[in-house]
Amino acid sequence: MCQSDTQRVRAEALASLAGWARWADRAPQVACTEIDDLDTGPEWRAALGALTTMLQDRVGWTEASDLVQTLAHRDDALDLNAGPDRDRPSAQRLVAVLHAAAELPRYARAHHRAELLHIADLLGDRAEFTPDEFVIRLAAMDWTAPTPTVAALAVRLDDRPLLTEGTMSALAHALGRDQAAWGLLTLEEAADHLTGFRSSGSGALALQLVRSAGSRFDWPEPWRARLRTLRSHPVEDVAILAKRAWAAVE
Prior knowledge:
The chain is mostly helical. It is built from 14 helices and no strands.
């Protein structure tokens, strides 16, 4: 039924595909093939929904990684570059797959941290997908020890203001989404480590950690002190942003 000539039948079959995954080993591959095939219509989104459910149920990660590899390194035909009906469909489908993986429940992301990091590595040589790579790395974050992840991202942000802005937003989203996984003690080492580097990327991410932690816990004094430190940051843009983060509202 997933290969029916009728689009509605295909979409309905693909939408129910995840329910068969435990008995049908090919279910993840069927979903990934549908997403990969640019000749398919909007039913590819039903396949993505099925794949997302399968990933949550701990199947299909190898097939999903292969799909990411294919889509990330495919150059679509010239008529698909800002065409009248389609615009870089491979990239659009890739971003949708990555977003679905990044927004899996926290328990699923924690269980498949290695697989998520492998997917992030697959994007490393495609600069246009660096923002998506960072989102995946944040989705795979071990919140008991966040310093290595945020420090590695910060190094890649120096002198890249547009990427920095997007990464701050992605970090804020990750902190909000996974707030049950971290507390003040969890973040203070990371915030102080980043502040100590005194570079633009590290300062920006330190500020986001301070802003998120301070807001969540009603700005205890140690975190107000961190905010004051960032307001004297040697990188002017970081200092300006810190001065516009309020610990109390008039």
